[in-house]
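Render this sequence as a predicted structure.
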Amino acid sequence: MGRTFVDVEIENYADILLREAAGNGRKKVRRLQARALVDTASALLCLHRATIRKLGLRFARSARVRAGNGEVERPIYTAARISILGRQVDTRVSNLLFSITGSRSREGRKDK
């Protein structure tokens, strides 16, 4: 089975809300462009911890999520907005546990 990648823009959703509340558009929204692996079974946006830091997302809570190897406790961060092919979705964020090669990522070893 092949892998599908897509170009995405990811923005800090709290920054978007603050900019809209200010009404003047002066609030800078932290955003970045990335090439992302599409996982149609995922309910979370999974990002590298360095990307989470760059976007300024904060730890919100822990949650039990179902993964390929059973239920695991994962950190959940404040929301991000993803833009793909002209469409947007606001979603929860967690950090990557595994790299796209299937090996355990360095980030997955030190949650939160």
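Summary. Residues 97 and 109 are 7 Å apart (CA to CA). The chain has one domain: 5-100.
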